[in-house]
């Protein structure tokens, strides 16, 4: 029985020693033999370059008319003519509505009669000063003339006539600017009051897009900076614009309003939603194509090539313009970086550069 136990223990010890030897053999196998058996991954490459870099600031907002004026009815009366409709284009000075001028015309005629009466009185009074008016004393003649006009009521009648003409002219409502009619509030035949609004006139030859930009990006924006505008109604075609104003106030959400001027198109209207891309040029930035950037465990990685093998580089990323990425740290200028087949690439994996 003792002999059997010794034999069993010897057998187990021999088996354990044999397994340990096999493990040592496996560990000692050269890694180069495995790399040679793995096919090289075909990759496209690019250079990490220091160059000018356009950082793109995206923002959305609404289009507004560059000029917008409210047409106001200045006196009460019946609207006998309405010559416009919503959406109609009018020119500055064009008559867009008329009020009944009957009462205003009567007031004008009364003022004209009053002036004639005052002038008749003036001429009668002037006859008593023939000697003075026949003299060469211009200063005295002017003083006497003013006194007679004031005493006869000529000055007051002249002012009353101007006032009556103004009231009569207000029976015609003219467009203060050129543009399109919007928000028409009355119809022909309506009884309107003084100071009531008739409509809005939108100067649509030029539009302004007002967008909100993050306060962290506002230092990169200045007036006359180029922008591209994409209207929701035509999101495929860019419209050239430029920054014309920056509101110096940051709102409660940490946003700053930026105004972008664009030349109007026929299919654009105030109130439409639009997206703007403001280009902020950055000089002397180290950039790589965006395809070179991958994320592993939440960290940014760029693979470079050394000795036909991939090299794993953790990088610090700066600005991104959709095509290129600014690299602040982790890759040297002139490095060859991998831009394809890098999503599952490992460190020190064999790679083959595709040259086409």
UniProtKB/TrEMBL annotation:
Molecular function in Gene Ontology: efflux transmembrane transporter activity
Domain spans labelled Multidrug resistance protein MdtA-like barrel-sandwich hybrid: 77-199
GO cellular component: efflux pump complex
InterPro entries referenced in this protein's UniProt entry, alphabetically: MdtA-like_BSH, RND_pump_MFP, YknX-like_C
Pfam families, sorted: BSH_RND (PF25917), YknX_C (PF25989)
Family the UniProt entry places it in: Belongs to the membrane fusion protein (MFP) (TC 8.A.1) family.
Protein's UniProt name: Cation efflux system protein
């Amino acid at each position: 029985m003792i002999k059997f136990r010794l034999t069993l223990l010897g057998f187990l010890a021999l088996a354990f020693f044999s397994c340990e030897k096999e493990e040592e053999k496996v560990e000692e196998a050269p890694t180069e033999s495995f790399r040679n058996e793995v096919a090289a991954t075909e990759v496209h490459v690019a250079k990490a370059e220091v160059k000018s870099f356009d950082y793109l600031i995206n923002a959305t907002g609404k289009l507004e008319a560059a000029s917008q004026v409210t047409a106001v009815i200045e006196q009460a009366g019946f609207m006998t003519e309405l010559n416009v409709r919503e959406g109609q284009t009018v020119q500055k000075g064009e008559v867009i509505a008329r009020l009944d001028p009957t009462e205003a015309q009567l007031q004008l005629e009364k003022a004209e009669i009053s002036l004639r009466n005052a002038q008749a009185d003036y001429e009668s009074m002037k006859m008593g000063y023939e000697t003075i008016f026949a003299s060469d004393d211009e200063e005295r003649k002017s003083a006497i003339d003013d006194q007679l006009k004031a005493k006869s009521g000529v000055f007051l009648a002249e002012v009353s006539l101007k006032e009556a003409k103004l009231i009569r002219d207000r029976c015609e409502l003219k467009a203060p600017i050129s543009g399109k009619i919007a928000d028409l509030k009355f119809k022909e035949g309506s009884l309107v009051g003084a100071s009531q609004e008739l409509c809005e006139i939108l100067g649509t030859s030029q539009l302004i897009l007002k967008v909100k930009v993050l306060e962290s990006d506002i230092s990169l924006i200045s007036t006359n900076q180029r922008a591209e505008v994409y209207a929701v109604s035509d999101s495929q075609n860019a419209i050239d614009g430029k920054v014309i104003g920056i509101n110096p106030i940051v709102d409660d959400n940490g946003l700053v309003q930026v105004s972008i001027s664009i030349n109007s198109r026929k299919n654009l209207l105030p109130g439409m939603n639009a997206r703007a891309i403001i280009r902020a040029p950055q000089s002397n930035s180290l950039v790589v194509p965006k395809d070179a950037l991958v994320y592993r465990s939440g960290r940014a990685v760029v693979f470079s090539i050394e000795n036909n093998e991939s090299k794993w580089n953790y990088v610090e990323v700066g600005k991104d313009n959709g095509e290129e990425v600014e690299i602040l740290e982790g890759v040297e200028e002139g490095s060859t970086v991998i831009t394809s087949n890098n999503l599952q690439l490992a460190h020190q994996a064999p790679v083959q550069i595709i040259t086409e």
